[in-house]
Specification:
Macro_dom-like, Macro_dom, single chain, Macro domain-containing protein, 41% helix, globular, 6 strands, Leucine Aminopeptidase, subunit E, domain 1, six-stranded mixed sheet, alpha/beta, 5 helices, binds adenosine-5'-diphosphate
Length: 177
């Protein structure tokens, strides 16, 4: 699809995905939560939360659109990249820019930490209510831009869709490339 990198689409549980790094749709507190955040902390164990608490003590958490890195704990993945998606408030509050930031900053963190494969959940499309169609467009566009324009070592990006609706939307987006 893009330069030397491959992009995969799967439906399933991101905690079971094989990748150097998996991305967590965290919240600004970094203290865990529901949805994919809860699943990652449950599967990865307490080492992840311990590192999140250290980061919280050092820098007060993670801002919307930013990304921070911890161990993968008991997960197969070496790293978890925690990024905070925007809450959807109708679209006039920089939601689009912040969601782009999440994808770009997560990929940058993967490169900085020498991860050559990375798996993304459908950031912001659960509890944060970002419209799935708009979010899938942004995810695919931002990832492809990064893979084409940057001196990246990333060889594989996996989009992990939890629900059928997202899977169909991503299929359609990826067709364009
Ligand atoms: P946000 O607060 O960013 O909306 P959520 O965790 O509520 O985060 O939802 C983000 C996406 O992650 C949703 O599409 C949800 O269906 C999905 N999701 C929930 N659990 C998992 C999981 N175990 N693996 C992959 N995706 C998941």
């Amino acid at each position: 699809m893009m330069k030397d990198s491959i992009v995969q689409l799967i439906r399933g549980d991101i905690t079971k995905t094989e990748a150097d790094a998996i991305v967590n749709a965290a919240n600004t507190s970094l203290m865990g939560g529901g949805g994919v955040d809860g699943a990652i902390h449950r599967a990865g164990g307490k080492a992840i939360l311990e590192e999140c608490m250290k980061i919280r003590n050092q820098q007060g958490g993670c801002a919307v659109g930013e990304a921070v890195v911890t161990t993968g704990g008991n997960l197969r993945s070496r790293l978890v990249i925690h990024t905070v998606g925007p809450v959807w408030h109708g679209g006039m509050n920089n939601e689009e820019q912040r969601l782009k930031d999440c994808y770009r900053n997560s990929l940058t963190q993967a490169d900085l930490n020498e991860a050559t494969s990375i798996a993304f959940p459908n950031i912001s499309t659960g509890i944060y209510k970002y419209p799935k169609s708009l979010a899938s467009y942004i995810a695919v566009e931002e990832v492809s831009k990064y893979l084409l324009n940057k001196e990246t070592k990333i060889k594989k990006v996996v989009f992990v869709c939890f629900d059928e609706e997202n899977l169909e939307l991503y299929k359609n987006e990826l067709k364009k490339y």
